[in-house]
Amino acid sequence: MDHAQLEHYRQVIEAILSEYASLPYSYADIQQEVVFDRIRDRYLWMDVGWDGDRRVHGCLLHIDIIDGKIWIQRDGTKEGIAADLERAGIPKEHIVLGVRPPEVRPYTGYAVA
Which of 14, 39, 63, 108 gives 43 a disulfide partner, CB atoms 3.0 to 4.6 angstroms apart? Predict the structure, then answer.
């Protein structure tokens, strides 16, 4: 993967996660945070806050770029971020559904690894 393609993938991931995190919760004091680690190519969308007296702290979405492919390690979105990545022009063969077991990945239509 050349630098221009890597930079494009980073920008697409950051834009999608930022858009997701921009939608506020209407029922609780929960902040949505994005974490972009461009050195290790790790990208997170987190919920942090309080829902009444219950602490909320969790990862909704985790993506890594590994060996030129986008690995979806955790996906708590309704539709699935893979569809958003495709709409942004990322080829299916560059998206790995890391949330699926390795033996299932060949049947997903996405990259195996």
Answer: 63
